[in-house]
Amino acid sequence: MEFQSICNFSQELDTSLLDRVVLAFFTGSGPERQAAQAALTQFQEHPESWTRVPEILQKSSYPQTKYIGLQILEKVISTRWKSLPDGQRQGIRNFLITITIEIASDEVTARKEKIYLNKLNLAMVQVLEQEWPHNWPTFISELVESSSTSLPLCENNMVLLRLLSEEIFDFSADQLTQAKAKELKLQLSSELSMEVLKEASKVSLLRATLETLGRFLSWIPLGYIFETESLQLFVERFLESAEYRNLTLKCAAEIASLPQSDVSMYGAKLKMFFTSVMTTINKLIPPSTDIASAYANASDAGQEMVVALALFLANFFSKHLPIMEGDVDREALINAHFYLIKISQVDEREVFKICLEYWLILLVGLYDEVSMIPLGTDLSRLKLRKDIYREVLSNLRLVAVGKMVKPEEVLVVENEEGEVVREYLKETIVLYKSMRELMVFLTHLDVVDVEMILTQKMAAQIDGSEWSWGNLNTLCWAIGSISGAMDEDTEKRFLVLVTRELLGLVEQKRGKDNKAMIAANIMYIVGQYPRFLKAHWRFLRTVVNKLFEFMHETHEGVQDMACDTYMKITTTCGRQFVVRQPDEKEPFVDEILRTVNRITVNLSPQQIPTFYEATGVIIAEALNRAQQERLIASLMELPNGAVSHSSSSLC
C-alpha cells in the first residue's frame, strides 16, 4: 500500500518514495514489481501528474525516475498544451530553460548527464513546436545570446538548433504551410553566426556546429553560404582535419545538392568550391588509391568518409555538371569521375547505389544528345559530350560487368558455404533493372567497346585467368542484360561466339557443380535473346534440345531453370515450333510431342506442369484449328492414358 501513496495528489510528493517505486519496477520481481507497476501507471495517468515534474527533475536521485518525469511532461505538451493557462505554459517553458542551462553550462555535468540532457532538449523542441515563433519570437536571439556565456552551453544550443531543424523541416514538413516555413527559416538563419566556426577551438563544440549547419544548408538563404566565409572555412579549416573531415564532406554534399536553378548566380563560387574540395581530397586520398580495398580495411570513420565523398561527387555532378564541362581544361572533371569509378568498385551495395544513381543521370544525358543527331551524320566530325568521358565510360563498363546483380530468371547460384544451389527470388530485382538500364546505355554509346570488354572477359573464363563462379555469373548476367542493344549482325556474331565458348566450357570443366553453374548461365543468356532465336532456327532448335538435356540433370535448380527457360522461349518464339522449317520433315512441335515421355521422365511432379504449359503455348500458335486439335490430343495422350489406367485399376 506504501507504493500507492505516490498517487495522493492532496499531499506533497515524496520523491525518495517515487525513486523506490521506480527502482522496484525496473529491478524488482514478483508481487513487489507488480505493485510498483500498478502505482506508476496510476501516477502517470493522473491528470495532475505533470505538476509533479519540476519536483521530480530537481529532487530525484534515480535517472529512470527523471526520464519518467520527462515522459509525463512530453505527453502533456503534445496532448494538452493548448488547454493549459498561459501562466502554466510559461512556467513549464521557464523551468525547462532553467534546468537545461543548469546542466548544460557545466562540462562535467553535461557529459555525465548526456542522456538526460538530450531528453530535456527533445522536450524543449516539443515546446518550441507549439510556441515558436508566434508566442516566443525571441527564442533564437535568446539562444544566441546565452551561447556566449559558456562553451558547453553553446555546444548544447547547437544540438538544440539541429533537433529543432530536423523536427520542423524534416519530420513536420507536411504540416507546415509554405508561408510559415519561410518565416521560420528566415528567423532561424538570420540569427546564425560564423563566429563559432571562425573562433572556437573546442572539438566537440565545432563538431556540434558543423553537424547543425549540415542540417540547415539545404534551406538557409544562399547568401549565407556563398557571400560569407563559409566555403573557405570548410576547406581551409576543417576538411583536412580528421575530427571534422566527415562532417565537412557531409556539409559539402548538402551544398552540392542545391538545385542548379537556385544557385545559378553563384556558379563561379560553386565551381571554385568544388575544385578546392577535390584538391584536398587528392592529398587525403591519392588518385592511385585502391578505394575498394581501402574501404574493406578501413575504420568506421574511414568508410564514412568514402560514403560522404560519394554523396558529394554524385550530388554535385547530378545538379551542376555543365559548369565543369564548360572548361577547356577538363582535368578536374575527369579526375573526380575516376574517384567515382573507384568508389563504385566498393563492395557495399548502398555505396554502389549512390554512384549508380548518378551514372544513370550522366548516361541518359549523353544518350539523349546522340539520339537527337539525324541518321547518316558523320559523328567523327562532331564534338559530343560522350567523347569527354570516353575513358571514364570504358572503365565504367568494366565496373558494371563486375557488379552485375542476379536477374530474377536465374535460379542456380553459389551460397555462402560455396555450394551451388537453387536460390529463390530476393530483393535484387529493382537493382537489377537499374543495372540493366546502365548496361544498355553503355552499349548504345559504344557498342564496339562493350563487345570487346565482354569478349575479353569471356576469354579470361576460358583460359582460366579469371575463372570463378562469381566472375562467370556477373559476366553472363551482363551479356543477358544488353539484349536488343546491338544491331542484328553484331548481336548474331557476338551471341554465337559467347554460346560456343560457354558450351566448350561445359566440356572443359569437371564436376557437377561447375557444369550446373555454366548450364544455368547458358540457359539465362539464350532466353534473353528472342530476336536472335526467331531469326536463326538451327540455333533455336539446338538450344531447346539442350534444355531437354538439362531436364535430366538432377543437380539442384538446373531442372527448374530448364523448364522456366523453355517456357520463356516458347512464349517469345512459339510460332517457329509449329511451322515446318526449311530442311525439316515436319514442324518441331511434332518431334517434341513424340518424345514427351522421354523428355519429362526425370522431372518432378511440380516441374511437369511447367513443361506442359510451355508446350501448350506452342500449340496456341498453331496455323489452324485442325492442327491445334491434333497437337492437343497428342500432348494429352500420355496424361490421359495415365488417368485411364488409374481408373481401370480402381474398377
TrEMBL record:
InterPro entries: ARM-like (IPR011989), ARM-type_fold (IPR016024), CRM1_repeat (IPR041123), Exp1_repeat_2 (IPR041235), Exportin-1/Importin-b-like (IPR013598), Importin-beta_N (IPR001494), XPO1/5 (IPR045065), XPO1_repeat_3 (IPR040485). SMART domains: IBN_N (SM00913). Pfam families: CRM1_repeat, CRM1_repeat_2, CRM1_repeat_3, IBN_N, Xpo1. Residues 36-102 form the Importin N-terminal domain. Coiled coil: none annotated. Belongs to the exportin family. This is Armadillo-type protein. It comes from Lentinula lateritia.
